[in-house]
Write a structure and sequence with these properties.
mainly alpha; Arp2/3 complex 21 kDa subunit ARPC3; two-stranded antiparallel ribbon; two-stranded antiparallel sheet; 7 helices; 4 strands
Length: 189
């Protein structure tokens, strides 16, 4: 595919980029199926996959991999944790965390353009994106939980939906950075 540019911005995808975008969407799917249930929300490898996607493909192509993953789930394919799919998952209590992956990619993409691709920049951008994903997902969780007249204070939502997952997500971030470095170092992609 020919890559057109307007004002120095790339407008289309190469064949390689399309294949990698689809391949990494599939990797996100597989990682979402690997889960350990803890209370209302399961620990999955989704965030690990998102970190790898962003680190390897970059913000732009990573964003499109995430969008493909979410769209596949939205049309009903069982791509989300627990082999679930459909709009009901996205509008349910944990849907905000899934949609928060989009914000992670947007933050990464913007930061990449502003600050480059150094390791420290990657770490800061991934942590900032994760914090925004947590914030958006938690607000969404409180909203959905409270729609039926139930009470869900912020402190309880954080205790249920964020605090238990922080150590695991930090470990996933470190592992993703190691894998990303190895893939780039050996020109595997």
């Amino acid at each position: 595919m020919v890559n057109n540019t307007a004002n120095g911005k790339k407008l289309s995808f190469s064949t390689k980029e399309m294949v990698l975008t689809a391949m990494f969407a599939a990797i996100i799917v597989v990682c979402s199926w690997i889960s350990i249930p803890i209370g209302t929300i399961a620990i999955t490898l989704q965030t690990f996959a998102i970190f790898c996607v962003l680190g390897i493909l970059g913000g732009r192509n990573g964003l499109f991999s995430i969008l493909v993953f979410i769209l596949l789930g939205a049309i009903g394919l069982p791509v989300f944790s627990g082999f679930k799919g459909g709009i009901g998952v996205l509008t349910g209590p944990t849907g905000g965390y899934i949609l928060g992956f989009i914000f992670m990619a947007l933050i990464y993409m913007a930061g990449e353009k502003l600050f480059g691709k150094k390791l420290v920049v990657q770490i800061v951008l991934m942590l900032a994106g994760l914090a925004v994903c947590y914030a958006f997902g938690t607000v969404w969780f409180i909203y959905v939980f409270s729609k039926d007249g139930n009470s869900m204070p912020l402190s309880k939502a954080l205790k249920l939906c964020v605090t238990p997952f922080i150590p695991f997500d930090i470990i996933k971030l470190v592992l993703a950075l190691i894998i990303t470095d190895r893939v780039k170092k050996h020109h595997l992609i």
